[in-house]
Design goal:
The chain has about 350 residues and is mainly alpha-helical. Helix content is about 55%, strand content about 5%. About 35% of the residues are buried.
Length: about 350
């Protein structure tokens, strides 16, 4: 639980700190251990601690932060750098394999940011998986080629709905010599929203980096960053905000923001919530932004709203799974063969908190 500062107060401070074009009035924020502990807590939950340390250094406010906190952030900053060096080595390997086998692809999200470097991503961007969009004609061959080159499917990812639901990516694959799992994507968004950003548009406009890797154009990198958060991570549904996405977007929006603000409701929504935290953006969605602001000020209200949304989603998913039980013999057999795993998945789902 935060101490004497609302979540809005802390989010606003971090957003202003991270934005490269914003001059932060540091004196308008409290300088106390409790305040910085809350900055650390929220920054960690949004996966932006290395970026916070980088911003503190760039804006020359090291003297303002507690020294023990700076040492902690510095350690994370360089640990993240070392991990990203290894991920870049893995990206180079993947690029060479795909080039040799004439597979059409682009790296996505954090991997593309790491390659493009719109900011000091190698120090500041935290990555988990390597996401790759592969042309539909090549997707099965891409998986086969990577498996021949030492990758293995993650056996812990048994799917009860295999060949029943079309997911936007294949199962994660891992390699004993590399640290990041790889996800091969056929689509960029879930089935309901996949028309909003089409794989062929990214592949047709892709650009090649100096090291030979293929990434989306600046526009598509910017757009996908927002849409991925809003739809795949359910930011729009829950009316929530991601500082990690914000940090990517603000380094990509210089040529995209004003001319494409109304290209999609989720883009307008993203910048409207941003305007609550930093006054560099327009608020064109008053209702959503006010609800978001209220949620940041009153945690109990936030918990109530998010719990209600999750309950509705849970009901819809359970209803769809009941249809699968009645309709698909494969689904019934998988549940019968792995009842403990099925119950474990249900338990995990009902205890998962998106925000």
């Amino acid at each position: 639980m935060l101490h004497n500062y609302s979540q809005k107060h802390i989010l606003s401070f971090i957003a202003q700190l991270l934005h490269p074009n914003n001059h932060i009035e540091i004196s308008s924020f409290p300088n106390s251990q409790k305040f910085w502990n809350d900055v650390l807590k929220i920054g960690s939950s949004h996966l932006v601690l290395p970026a916070i340390y980088g911003a503190i250094r760039k804006k020359n406010i090291e003297h303002y932060a507690p020294q023990d906190l700076l040492l902690y952030l510095k350690e994370i900053y360089y640990l993240n750098y070392n991990q990203n060096i290894e991920i870049l080595r893995q990206i180079t390997f993947l690029s060479k394999v795909f080039k040799k086998n004439k597979i059409e692809y682009v790296f996505l999200k954090g991997s593309a940011i790491l390659i493009e470097k719109p900011y000091d991503a190698i120090h500041e961007r935290m990555l988990g998986d390597i996401d790759i969009l592969v042309a539909e004609k090549d997707i099965i061959r891409a998986l086969e080629v990577l498996i021949k080159n030492g990758f293995k499917e993650n056996n812990n990812e048994f799917s009860f709905v295999k060949n029943i639901i079309d997911y936007r990516h294949l199962k994660r694959i891992v390699h004993s010599n590399y640290i990041a799992a790889v996800e091969i994507h056929s689509q960029l968004l879930d089935n309901t929203n996949k028309h909003l950003i089409k794989p062929k548009d990214l592949l047709n406009s892709k650009v090649q980096s100096s090291d030979g890797s293929w990434i989306p154009s600046g526009f598509h990198l910017w757009l996908h960053a927002i849409l991925n958060w809003q739809y795949n991570d359910k930011g729009l549904l829950y009316n929530e905000f991601s500082l990690k996405t914000f940090y990517d977007v603000i380094h990509l929006d210089s040529v995209n923001y004003k001319s494409n603000l109304f290209i999609n409701k989720s883009v307008t929504h993203f910048y409207s919530l941003s305007s609550i935290l930093i006054d560099l953006y327009q608020n064109n969605n008053y209702l959503s932004s006010k609800i978001f602001e209220y949620k940041m000020l009153y945690p109990k209200f936030r918990y109530l709203i998010n719990s209600l949304i999750k309950f509705i989603i849970s009901f819809l998913i359970i209803f769809s799974r009941l249809k699968y039980i009645l309709k698909y013999k494969n689904y019934r057999n998988r549940i019968f063969n792995k009842p403990k795993l099925f119950m474990k998945r249900i338990f995990i789902f009902f205890n998962k908190r998106y925000f």
